[in-house]
Structures are given as structure tokens and as C-alpha cells.
Amino acid sequence: MHNDIVCGEPIKQVVLPACKRKEVLQMAHEIPYEELTYRDRIPIQPIVRPNNPFEVWSVDCIGPLEPRSRRGHEYIVCAIDLCSRWAEAIPAKNITAKTTCEVLLKIFCQTGFPPKTICTNQGTNFTAQLTQAFQDVLGVSPRFSTPGHPESMGAVERWNRTLKDMLNKNIQEHGNEWDVHLPYLLFAYREIPHTLTSVSPYQLVYGRLPSGPMTILKEFWTGEREIPTGAARSVEEYLKQLQKKLQDAHEIASENSAKNQERMTSHYNLRSREKSFSVGDEVLILMPSSMHKFLNTWMGPAKVIKLTRPHSCLV
What is the pLDDT of residue 82? Predict the structure, then answer.
């Protein structure tokens, strides 16, 4: 056993014998991550991490998915909190503005509302009058990404890719029952320490470690018994300790977030170079060539008429 303390929680890590490693890897559903490389990069700046959970959400949709679920779901509305990296994924039969608003209300009723900002792309369900009215009523400030540039939506785009990998494995086994298994996939994602914060989303939100399948397996192997929370403590003592654990977790997350963002930004910028344009320059624009978002083509030439901000031009 390896003993340690993280965010006030005693951690006992089992040193696995070789005969048990395959079993643990299969249970954990380890997902290989593949990073994409781009030839035409410009330097990026890390997005500032909010101080409190559920203040700033990044929202996107994936689908249509094949196969459609037995309940008629073929889309998923995905959302991720930029502070804790707490992820949500709600199955939907369509992604109209009305459905999108209903899904967001469902999420905010659980996590607290209204949030300060909702970040989305410029899909019609997000820019529609109904969605704007919904945001106006809640007093939420919308923030839209630049078309064709998902970099500012990196958190939810990364969550989308992870979810698709998890769904791919799940659909192979369960077919059109994938929507029933979404809560289990979400739990698996939330209990794992995030690369950016080095703390699990679950611990950042609840201030304690989750009791998932891996914990149960470890306790079974080691013969540990679960002691009920608060059995030997008063409510006041429990709340004080919970507050301290949350504070410690957020301090660790803030420190790791800043360090990892700097590391990832430096790594990304290694293969980038500064580019600039002037008013009057003729440029090419990468635009969708059809309704399919993956089919793009260079169009132009267009003339730069205004420099709006670094790396952004009005043509």
C-alpha cells in the first residue's frame, strides 16, 4: 500500500500484482488520446479559469448518432463547467432551440442558476430568438465562438471527443441502449482527476472522493470497511471540514490549472508563428463548402477592411 493525503482525504493506493492489472484496466475503460497537429497555427492564449464552479459553462451538441436509441434519441447536448470541468451530457430527440433551452434548464436546476456566462458556437439553436430570450430572462451573458475556429471552445470540444470515444465502446456492447448508459459514463469521467486541474471534477464540486467501482474493488481486495460519513462527528464539524476540503481542492486545482495551461500553451505555440495583416491586404478565407461542417475550402481573395483585435480581421 502507498499512503498519501490529497485535499485532506487519506489516499491508500494498492500496488497491483501483474495478475490483476488487466482486470483493473478493463474496468477503468482506459481511453487512448490522440492529439491532432496543425501546420497553420498562430500563438494562443489560455482561457482564464473561473474562480467558482458553475459560473461559466461551455455548451455544444453532437449528433445525429447512429444507431438512434430505442427511445428515439439521436443527439446529445454536451456541457462542461470551466472551473471544475464537471461534465454533463443529456440525450435529445432533436436540437431545436426549444429543446436546447429545456436541456439547459434541467442542468441549471441541478447545478444552480443562472450562471454568469454560457459559451457556445454559432449554431442556429444557440443564436435563435428563443434561446436569446431564454438567456435574457435568466440574465446570462452569451459568448459565441468565431465560426470555423473551435479553439475558444476547447474544453467542450475535448469533452465531446472523449464522450464519443466512450460511446463508441458502449454502442458496440449495448447497441441502441446507449442513452440508458450515459449516467454511468458521466460518473466514470467525473471521478477521474482532470489533466488540467489534477483533481477530479467530483472532488472539486463535492469536496470528497467518490465511491465508484474502482473504490469498491479496492476495498474488497484490501478488506476495508466503509465508515458512514459523520458517524463520529457533529453536523457543524462535518460542514467545517467539508468547507476546508473544498478550499484545499480549489487551491490545488488553481495551482495545477495555471501550471498545466502554461505547459499546454507553450507546447502548442512551439509549432506556431506570429502572423499579421494590414488594412487593404488581400487574403484567403477558409469557409465551409457545403452543409457538412468537415468540408471546407479556401475562398477569395477578400480584402481586409478593419483589424478588430489580435488575429481577427473584418474582410
Answer: 87
pLDDT in tens, 43-61: 666 667 777 888 888 898 8
- Whats the size of the chain, residue-wise? 315
Strands 9-13 and 75-81: unpaired
Q: Check residue 175 and report its DSSP letter.
A: G
pTM: 0.59
Contacts of 121-127 with CB under 8 Å at 24 or more apart are 121/60, 121/145, 121/147, 121/150, 121/153, 122/147, 123/61, 123/95, 124/97, 125/61, 125/95, 125/96, 125/97, 125/99, 125/100, 126/59, 126/97, 126/100
What whole-number distance in Å separates Cα of residue 131 and Cα of residue 61? 14
Q: Confidence class of residue 94 from pLDDT cuts 50, 70 and 90?
A: very high
Q: What type of residue sits at position 108?
A: F
Per residue in 126-156, pLDDT (tens digit) is: 888 888 888 888 888 788 876 666 666 778 8
Cis bond upstream, residue 114 (ω within 30): yes
What is the number of other CB atoms lying within 10 angstroms of the CB of residue 182?
A: 20
CA distance 282 to 313: 12
* Sequence letter at residue 137: V
For residue 69, how many C-alpha atoms fall within 13 Å in the half-sphere facing its CB? 21
The alpha carbon of 257 is separated from its chain's Cα centroid by a whole number of angstroms, namely 14
Q: What is the pLDDT of residues 198-255, one digit of tens each?
A: 788 888 888 777 766 566 666 666 766 554 455 555 545 655 665 565 555 556 556 6
